Amino acid sequence: MKKKTLLFVTIFPLVAVVAYAAVGLLLFMNRDNANAIDTTNKVAVYTVTFDTRGGSAVEAMQITSGQKIDNEPIPSKTDYRFLGWYTDIGYTNLFDFQTEIENDLTLYAKWVEIYTVNFESCSGSAVDLVRVTNGQTIKMPTTTRDNYVFLGWYLDADYTQRFDFATPITGNITLYAQ
What we know:
Largest sheet: 7 strands, mixed
Radius of gyration: 39 Å
Shape: rod-shaped
Strand content: 25-35%
Helix content: 10-25%
Distance between the termini: 136 Å
Number of strands: 7
Order of helices and strands: HEEEEEEE
């Protein structure tokens, strides 16, 4: 019986130490795996920034990789017409909102100035002002006045510079009826 007890007392601590070491090793290995970042299921999120070039603010958007921008934001700017979003400040690459986003992106608003043409009917019937995009032309409106014949529109109240309606509008003007 003494041999069995001696064998048990000698082998049991050895088995316990080996088991303890094995459990410790497994826990150590699992600790490293538990802290590892699983990148296989991670999806990139990109920021799309809108530079309105002086227009109303547009908040940046967070877009998941491969997704499209749902709604094109339309900023406003007094006395300007919005022409679209461009990927470059030189306005050579119009952004297509059907494009899937694959990186951070800044879009630039392009604007064209709008001018006002006022009509001074000089006691004739009123003519509404016209808002026109820079470089565009307008059609000649008419005005009437009892016992008078309308002769045209002039750039000055003294009727020395007749306005040619084929002329592109490049600034705010007032035209005078004669």
